[in-house]
Amino acid sequence: MTSLETLALRVQLPAFAGTTLPDDYADLLAEGLGGVCYFGSNTADGLWPVVELSTAIKAANPRAVIAVDEEGGDVTRLHALDGSPVLGPAALGAADDLVLTRDTGRAIGAEMAAVGINLDFGPVADVNSNPDNPVIGTRSFGTDPVRAAAHVAAWVTGLQEAGVAACAKHFPGHGDTAQDSHLELPTVDADLATLTERELVPFAAAVEVGIASVMTSHIVVPVLDAELPGTLSAPVLGLLRDRLGYDGVIVSDALDMAGASAGRGIPEAAVLSLAAGADLLCIGPEKPAALVRETQDAIVAAVHDGRLTRGRLEEAVARIDRMLDQLGEPTAYDVDADAQLDGARRALMVEGELPDLKGAEIVSVATAANIAIGEVPWGLAPDRLVAPGEPVLGDRPVVLQVRDAHRRPEIEVDGAAVVVEWGWPGPYDGSVPRICTRGYSRPGAAAVTELLRKAGWKR
Q: Which residues participate in catalysis according to the annotation?
């Protein structure tokens, strides 16, 4: 019989710092640690070191889950140095080509399988109904639940065809928030009918096509649970099990986020999440092995105290094992660069007539990315950087690059010849023509470059 101590490791998915496997993590994996989630520091040296790292993890524990956030577009860990080679969700939703979306998921999955990753924390199934959302935005397939659902299903199908498990997030829906759950605890104050008709539609579509896992969100939904965030709430996770009939792996969003562990700590959040019905616990980036041990001890103590049952842990581990056993054989599939570029062209939204851009310079407003995106390339290589609120006028026409300008009133666009919005295409009442890309990717950058050159810009 598997010991409680081993079960308490099997349900954990922490992350360490660096591109090589630390000895103490190797020991944890050998004892049965559920796996590892890669973040930016783990993939910073390029793809071949990721292959070597995955090989070391699998040598320590052949049953290890190796996960990463690879959504395409803005959120990429494998291409953090040069930008994603595929479109992100908002651009795919705007292009509205389900074959392209499925092929995009398959291309991402093929690359992940090639470097030893077997679980992708994607796609985002949130309907971005609030344009002021600071953390979802271009990570969503759009504002229409039915269209978003169709693209979620296509993306999941493509990814899982490549032999990688998908994970729809962030249940029951993080789209109608104006706060970032990395930093605080947002609330979605919608009634059950609205949740059913809006938030749940893409998740239901993911369940319908056999998605391997679903990630929770650290948001409070008062109509379901007025106190606890979804990650820690049995009524919220019960909605996924009972209303949507889902019996796969429920993954917690990272427990180090303020929405989950502020005021209670990660080990206690882990116990509460398991008790609520989660199966696999993301702990967060760059965590010491000592925290994994502390969380293991808290889970074991909770069983002894009657707050958890051994059966709950065994159920969680059985779901994780079933997910691993059901992975398809990895398949090679290359990105269709021409199809991606064509999709990027169709996703562009141009407001107003572009002026003559002969001699124009590219100026970027330096804005910090949200935590989910991280510091990755965005936009065309600028000739000049300015701070938010700094005048942009120069002695040449200015192509002004911004991200989510509608949420940043300090950004001044007057004086620019053209605004290129690389974030969510929010409300805009400026007199300057605007190009909306719906997120950054290399195909998106190529499509914008084409458009600017037609207007006379050269570099």
A: 182, 253
